[in-house]
Amino acid sequence: MKTQVVIIGFGTMGKAIAKAIAKKDRQIVIFGIDKDKPNMKKIIQKVSEADFIILSVKPQDAKEVIMGIKNYLNKKTILISIMAGVSIKELIRLSGHRKIVRMMPNLGLSVGQGIAVWKQTGLSSLEFKKAKNFINKISDNFEIKNEDTINKVTAISGSGPAYFFLLADSLVKASSKLGLNKNESRKLVEKTLLSSALLGNQGDYASLIKKVASKGGTTESALKVFQKENFSGIILKAVVAAYKRAQELSNG
Ligand SMILES: NC(=O)c1ccc[n+]([C@@H]2O[C@H](COP(=O)([O-])OP(=O)(O)OC[C@H]3O[C@@H](n4cnc5c(N)ncnc54)[C@H](OP(=O)(O)O)[C@@H]3O)[C@@H](O)[C@H]2O)c1
User: Fold this and answer.
1) CATH no. for residue 28?
2) Separation of CA 10 and ligand 1 centre (Å)
3) Residue 58, ligand 1, Cβ within 6 A
4) What percent of the chain clears pLDDT 70, i.e. is strictly above it?
5) Within this chain, do residues 33 and 125 fall inside the same structural domain, yes or no?
6) Is 11 in the pocket of ligand 1 (CB under 6 A)?
7) 47-69: string of b/e by CB count within 10 Å (b at 16+)?
8) Under 8 Å CB-to-CB from 3, ≥6 apart: which residues?
């Protein structure tokens, strides 16, 4: 029998997950549900037959969505939530369901380069294997033991792509200020970002920085400004803010 998957919330992540699964395994049947899919009869049928249901709506829509499906959940279904800050306890409270996986992926999965962490509850060892096998189709991943780690991971890799886009955007703007046109600037920044990511596993970051920054050179001048303006401190503050927000959401 083919694995049946229902994705509720067919936005950025829901669609990206569907694509990632379809690329890896054509045998899996995916049914995406969005707000504008009002065919309730079909939704009820798909939900009640699903091997996996992925909740991919915004955290503030969690209650409404879970209440809508709770009466049709099959006991065997594995419910996977990727919602930031919605705890396993809350997922169980809202759904009354026992087999839950809370997962934190990132947008990287849409280009086959995702990283995700997850924690499960209520799965038998067979279901655990089934879930692990399924998650492997979505993204590179690892299991974590302490649920609060998911809030920390949310602040690093979940939100992380946005931090890099902000850096890239700032570089493009700076490049334009220096007089380069937008297309040239984007090309320069995109290639630099991509190659830096690929170089990233070739050593510790301090040594990699040294490879670019020679003493008394141009990079060193830039790095001095970053240091003076406490770039690392700003990053830390931003990450802590994201972590705290994930904790706030978790605590309702
Ligand atoms: N984006 C990321 O990088 C990222 C990374 C990790 C985790 N997440 C988590 O993933 C979840 C989804 O994020 P996203 O960025 O994909 O958001 P999104 O693009 O806004 O997608 C959410 C989708 O859910 C739909 N929706 C809202 N209420 C619904 C309902 N009652 N029934 C069915 N569908 C409904 C929305 O439709 P409308 O637009 O019509 O309201 C939208 O298409 C969030 O909980 C977020 O914390 C996101």
Assistant:
1) 3.40.50.720
2) 7
3) yes
4) 99
5) yes
6) yes
7) bebbbbbbbbbebeebeebbeeb
8) 25, 27, 28, 29, 51, 52, 134
d(CA 24, CA 3): 13
Which residues are CB-contacts of 109 (< 8 A; sequence separation ≥ 6)? 16, 17, 20, 116, 138, 139
Rounded to the nearest whole angstrom, what is the distance from the C-alpha of residue 34 to the centroid of ligand 1? Answer: 9
Q: At what angle do helices 182-199 and 160-177 cross, to 10 degrees?
A: 140
pLDDT at res. 37: 64
Tell me, yes or no, whether 151 lies in a domain. Answer: no
pTM higher than the cut 0.90: yes
Give 222-239 pLDDT, tens digit per residue. 999 999 999 999 999 999
- Residue 39: predicted pLDDT: 85
- Residue 4's φ and ψ, nearest 5 degrees, are -105, 125
Give residues with Cβ within 8 angstroms of 136, minimum separation 6: none
Query: Alpha-carbon distance 249 to 125, whole Å?
Result: 30
Residue 154 included in any domain: no
For the chain, the distance separating the N- and C-terminal CA atoms, rounded to the nearest angstrom, is 39
> Is the pLDDT assigned to residue 252 strictly greater than 80?
no
Q: How far apart are CA 128 and CA 140, in angstroms?
A: 16
Binned at pLDDT 50, 70 and 90, residue 164 comes out as very high
30 and 71 assigned to the same domain: yes
DSSP annotation of 3: P
pLDDT in tens, 192-226: 999 999 999 999 999 999 999 999 999 999 999 99
